[in-house]
Amino acid sequence: MSEHFRVQGGARLVGEVDVVGAKNSVLKLMAAALLAEGTTTITNCPEILDVPLMADVLRSLGCEVDIDGDVATITTPAELNHRADSEAMGKLRASVCVLGPLVGRCKRAVVALPGGDAIGSRPLDMHQSGLRKLGARSEIEHGCVVAEAEGLHGAQIWLDFPSVGATENILMAAVLANGTTVIDNAAREPEIVDICVMLQQMGARIEGAGTSTLTVHGVESLRPTEHRVIGDRIVGATWAFAAAMTRGDITVRGVDPHHLDLVLEKLRMAGAEVTTSGHDTFRVVQHDRPQSVDFVTLPYPGFATDLQPFAIALSSVSDGTSMITENLFEARFRFIEEMVRLGADARTDGHHAVVRGVEKLSSAPVWASDIRAGAGLVLAGLCADGTTEVYEIFHIERGYPGFVENLRKLGATVDRVTA
Ligand code: UD1
User: Looking at the UniProt record for this protein, which Gene Ontology cellular component terms does it annotate, in alphabetical order (predicted)?
Assistant: First the structure.
């Protein structure tokens, strides 16, 4: 049976939308719970499939995990199993972040190579070389990352690139290492700050969260805690782009607008009226056809690669020509093939895309290749004449809790069809 979304073009999205916890934070926070014996509670969890999948990974390591609505309760035993179950691991990328906590706590880990979105090559060399610097042996054997150490010691680590996953794994191993670790060229994403805050509440000694130098003074042990996941900036930004593309008026609650400073500035350049209020609300109003704007993806605080499909989708209906440069995941440009089906005037050359805006897109059947590409196609369908059918929607549902309900609340005509 194939399930798809049927999206009616032409709606102007107007209203308010609440955004819950960040997918790319909650999964790492769940892994961080491995670092302390006892019961850790994580609130504001998004109700998406990846959360129960991550719960399965933790159960395979010996934890008891209960998920009740937006609350995950994880009870970690004194003795963890160091081997992460391959089936659950293969289903999501973030499962690799159990590697650091396992090496920290058990001094050994066997972790199947992770699955996740097909957005290009995703090596683990920086994760491994960081763990080696801390004193662990780390190899890929029979489809698994195998790491072992007599004991972990502090080290100076320079990352070639501010990788989110490598920063997280090294950080979560270093909190229990003997001595001080300095991670230079560390990732600065808000989700990294979120983990640092949780680890600090657990008793870790970390300085420099949100900067490119993280200093970690290892401690003997950590204690369990209760932590609220930060709002999902990528989901929040999706609604901001939806407002700009449909000449709508959307108020987004639950996301810190500072996490989207550059995104909101780009939308202002495209002609949107953007206002922020307090620490978790912003509003995007677009009166006229958007103006073309250039986008370059970079690690935070640059423009997020996860938002690149929305930059392409917006550019495809803007007035003028935009250049979009992708610096992180080459395969993300596959999305453009689907946009071309919808009548976009777009082409790529290496890691650049040139998009000439058209007045209106043309409805067509299209296929989602990952979470963000899928959501981008739905937004594009809202700007097309007629009815666009978006297939492979399981991708979208991995990242957007209540996507169809939210779209409908904002005035879109979207159906989830099982045929
Ligand atoms: C995370 C996010 C993903 C986001 C990405 C960049 C999760 C579950 N996923 O992915 O949504 O798009 O950050 O913001 O949080 N690299 C190496 N060697 C390594 C590690 C990474 O070469 O050892 C490269 C990657 O191929 C990529 C770049 O570094 O080109 C950035 O990857 P990274 O920041 O590690 O992304 P993820 O943590 O996998």
Answer: cytoplasm
